[in-house]
Design brief:
Elements lengths: L2 H19 L5 E4 L6 E4 L2 H14 L14 H10 L10 H15 L1 E8 L4 E8 H13 L6 H13 L6 H6 L1 H42 E3 L7 E3 L8 H16 L17
Antiparallel strand pairs: 1-2, 3-4, 5-6
Length: about 270
């Protein structure tokens, strides 16, 4: 597939993921002005949010019709070499990608008591890795998350605490409670703000293309079509383009919002 077809497929998949995480079924946004916060409908809804987030932080499937790459990496590549940019319409998307990836790469310290192995430890971990650990532990039990246990071994080794693999497996529940119920719960509103920013970045980037492409049938008919770019030939890419334009037509679910600074000072 050519560059434009690949871009359309990546963007369609990203928007699908974003809409699965930032929607009215999972959450509500409350507060005034720049002091918004996100409340999940239940702890189960919050857990699903972080499971879905792991997909966004992961690579696309190697068997997909486009090269395997991290979703955020694909967005970064698109924002640096956009196919549909008009008068810097890609600017907001580029800024949103830079801000979110920069935030994810920051290392934080999490002081944790691990009663199962009688250990108090200050774990230094990037937010990206912490979110990956939480999402994977949300999906899998101990015997399906040995890879996470090995990662915890490395983190504890980095903190000067050597543990056996079975000990790293034992602490997974305590790690999950600390990382998910404390750190992730605290940052959930900020993450939702970042994800909503990505949605609006894509919206602003593609709006000129939507205006060019959207063609109503005329009269009082509700029928419409989209005019495909000439370089779009693969049938799968065309389907993704149609879905993408419809996503732009409906727009992001939430209006842009800014989370209170009181929810951004820790971790």
């Amino acid at each position: 597939m050519n560059k434009v077809e690949q871009e359309v497929i990546y963007l369609s998949a990203v928007i699908e993921l974003l809409r699965s995480m930032v929607n009215y079924e999972l959450m509500a946004v409350g507060g005034d002005g720049d002091h918004k916060s996100v409340q999940f409908k239940s702890t189960t809804h919050r857990q699903f949010f972080f499971i879905a987030l792991v997909d966004l932080l992961s690579q696309t499937d190697a068997k997909a019709p486009v090269p395997s790459t991290p979703y955020l990496g694909a967005l970064r590549a698109i924002s640096n070499a956009p196919s549909f940019d008009v008068n810097d319409s890609v600017g907001d998307l580029k800024k949103a990608v830079i801000n979110f990836t920069g935030w994810l790469r920051e290392e934080i310290a999490v002081d944790t008591w691990l009663s199962s192995i009688d250990l108090q430890v200050n774990i230094h971990i990037t937010r990206y890795l912490l979110l990956k650990v939480v999402g994977n532990l949300s999906k899998h039990n101990t015997l399906r998350s040995v890879g996470v246990a090995e990662e915890l071994q490395r983190l504890l080794q980095k903190a000067g605490k050597k543990v056996e693999l079975y000990q790293a497996m034992l602490i997974q529940e305590e790690i999950y409670e600390k990382f998910h119920d404390d750190v992730c719960a605290y940052h959930a509103s900020t993450i939702a703000e970042f994800l909503n920013g990505l949605s609006w970045g894509i919206q602003h980037y593609l709006k000129p293309e939507y205006v060019r492409s959207f063609t109503p049938a005329g009269g009082e008919s509700a029928v419409y079509k989209f005019l495909y770019p000439k370089v779009l030939e693969h049938p799968y890419a065309k389907t993704c383009y149609w879905n993408l334009m419809n996503q732009v037509r409906s727009g992001p679910i939430f209006a842009p919002f800014t989370v209170s600074e009181y929810l951004k000072g820790n971790y």
